[in-house]
Each structure stands twice: as structure tokens, then as C-alpha cells.
Amino acid sequence: MARAFVFVLDSFGIGGAADAAEFGDEGANTFAHIADACRSGKADRPGLRNGPLLLPNMTALGLGQAAHIASGYDFGPASAPLLPSSFHGAAQEISSGKDTPSGHWEIAALPMRFGWGRFPDTVPAFPPALTEAMIREGNVPGILGNCHSDGMAAIEIFGEEHIATGKPICYTSVDSVLQIAAHEEHFGLDRLYEFCRIVRRLCDPLKIGRVIARPFLGETADTFKRTANRRDYAVSPPEPTLLDRITEAHGRVLAVGKIGDIFAHRGVTTLRKAAGNMAMFDQALEAMKEAIDGDFVFANFVDFDSEFGHRRDPAGYAAALEAFDCRLPEALALLKQGDLFVLTADHGNDPTWRGTDHTRERIPLIGLAPGLTGGSAGLRTTFSDIGETVAEHLGIGPGKYGTSFYGDIGGHA
Ligand SMILES: O=P(O)(O)O[C@H]1O[C@H](CO)[C@@H](O)[C@H]1O
Ligand SMILES: [Mn+2]
Ligand SMILES: [Mn+2]
């Protein structure tokens, strides 16, 4: 028996996806372009950060090697010594989407190769029958938006009209999402959640992955601010995931952050939530301390994606990575012999790229397995290899989709 920990740095892609061109993302590379921006002084921000990207702890786990495996990128500090028992590699996604559920479900050994519905980039974006049903069943006077949009732009453009009319702001993106922004006080937070539950049901036949509540506060376009009360209403995974397999084997899944929502709370034993990466890190440490043999701690750090990737803010993203890296030793210090600790990502979100959407990229898999030899896991053909490695580590039989790399890093023969 043993314990396993997977921390997902939401959107921390490392480029090189073989199918990036099919997504309009050829050349996108979240990590490399942040590092390049830092190196050339383009990610300096007084009072926030300066100079080259410094990630000594992730570098010691093999981030540089992982980047090189994924795209040939040379991070430079990759020549620094690696920690004993550390391992590194990169993985290609096989799911058809580059969204958060696709990435996480594939990590949890359930790739989604087909099947998500999406709304076209037209105005209106939603089919009239859906819009009519949302208004009628949701008992609202109409909807605003009805288009593809960046979330902050949607609030800036429609927020004041929303307050005046009570019409929720409904928008989408290239992902399989229908997002609903509404004012926490004028519209009401509970009412927004209730409206989202109704829209969730209406979206089921359209195979929309998530309906997302995006509450905000403020009174004018220049003062609107989204709050931490975002809530995702996801469809249930269509087959058992690693989380179900672990709980069936009587292990516990200790989820941190968005993980509960992403898996529609299936296979989740306990859930810890917090606002902001640092508070989330505190929660992840608490989960690590609580974990006993057979348990799996699965944590998501969403700020990288929502605060910096979608906002196309390389300096902010770099600062968030550096802050995360600084805290990593606290997590590593909690590891015992026989534990498996993995840092990875669910997709890319290159803050130097066009638009505001995710980018199709490979993901890093770096970590520490005290007691094992560690080394290179190479380039994996699916994110599911991470889930299968966790399964093998926890003594759970193999699933249908991925291949464990546990043997490559010195695990069970
Ligand atoms: O611009 P915001 O509202 O953050 O939207 C983003 O959030 C959605 C869910 O993560 C993505 O599909 C993307 O559109
Ligand atoms: Mn994500
Ligand atoms: Mn996102």
C-alpha cells in the first residue's frame, strides 16, 4: 500500500502537441513563451516580478527535461542537478477537446475522444429553442451576450445592462461550455446557481460539458470583479474514472479545488476548496497530511488558467509559477517512502497567444517517488498514463486506456 498525490497546474502546457495545427495552435507553448518573455524582460512588472523565470524546485524535479521531451525547448537551467527519485516526462492528449474536463478525465484514465457539443462562433451562438427554454424555465426577462466572449469582456460590456434589466449574461468559447455571469447581489448568488442548474438540464441533450456560474460584484464597467463563487456544473463522466476505481478499492479520494466539480463529484470522498492558488496550496498540504495508505490526493490550481492564461498575462503567469515553486518544498517535505507525487497540467493556455482560449499542448509530468530510482518516463501517448501509473502504484488493476510508466521509474516489475 502507498499514497499518491497529483497536483494539476491548470493550463501549464509545454507545447509540442502533434495535433496543435488542428486546433489553430501550432507553435503555442505556455511554459516556453512565458520563460522567453521573462528572459527578454517582457514579463517584468514593478512590484510583482523581474528577470528570468526562476523555478528551482520544479527544475530539480525535471521540468527542463520534460519541456525538452515535449517540444525540444531548452529551458537552460535544465542542466541543474535532479533530485534523487525524481522523474520527468511529457504527455500528448488524445481527447478531442482541449478543455478542463477533457484534460482531467484523461489524466484520470478516461479519454474523451468524441462527443462534446459546442456552440458556433456566431451571434446568436445558442440555438433559439435553447434560448427560449432558458428564459421560460429560468424565469428571466431575457438573456444578454449569446456569443463567444472572454469572461471579463462580457461583464464589462453587458454588466450595467444586466443590473438594470435582470437579464443574465450568457456566453461561450471554443470549449464545450455555457457560462452565465450575473451580479451576486442584484441578481443573487443562489438564484444564479438555481438558473445554472436549470440550464445544465437543458444543455444535457446538446452534450455540453459544463454550465458555469460566473458571479461578479461592482456597480460599473470599470469596477466589476468576478468573485471566488464560481461553480461548474459538469456532466458525469460516461465511464468509471480513476477516482471511481480508487474508491471501489476502498481508498479515499481527497479532492482539492475544482476537482469535485470537474468530476461531477463522482468518486470524490472529501473536497477542500479555497480562493486563490496559495490558499489552495494550504488546502492541498492539509489533504496530504490527512492521507493514509491507499489514498489519492487530487488537487487543481486554477489561477494559472483563469487569472493569467485567459487574461493573456505572461508576467502574472510567471509570478504565479514562481510563487507556486517557492511552496513546493513544503509538499515534498510531507512525502514518505512509498509515496508517489506528480505535478502536471490539463491543457495549455499560452498567455502570448492570439485570442483568449486554451491552446492544444503537451503537458509536463514531473514528480518524486521516494524509494524508486526515478528517471525519464519519456513521451507518453496519452495523459491517461498518469492515471494508470497512480493505479499501479496504489495496487489497483489496469484500466482500458493508458499504460503505466511505473516500471520506467523503478516501480513494480
Ligand atoms: O474568459 P472566461 O470567462 O474566464 O472563460 C474561460 O473559462 C472557461 C472555462 O474554464 C473557458 O472555456 C474559457 O472560456
Ligand atoms: Mn483547465
Ligand atoms: Mn480555462
From TrEMBL:
It catalyses: alpha-D-ribose 1-phosphate = D-ribose 5-phosphate; 2-deoxy-alpha-D-ribose 1-phosphate = 2-deoxy-D-ribose 5-phosphate. Its main location: cytoplasm. Its EC number is 5.4.2.7. GO terms for molecular function: magnesium ion binding; manganese ion binding; phosphopentomutase activity. InterPro entries: Alkaline_phosphatase_core_sf, DeoB, Metalloenzyme, Phosphopentomutase_DeoB_cap_sf. Pfam families: Metalloenzyme. Mn(2+) 2 binds at residues 305, 310, 358. Belongs to the phosphopentomutase family. HAMAP family: Phosphopentomut. This is Phosphopentomutase. The gene is deoB.
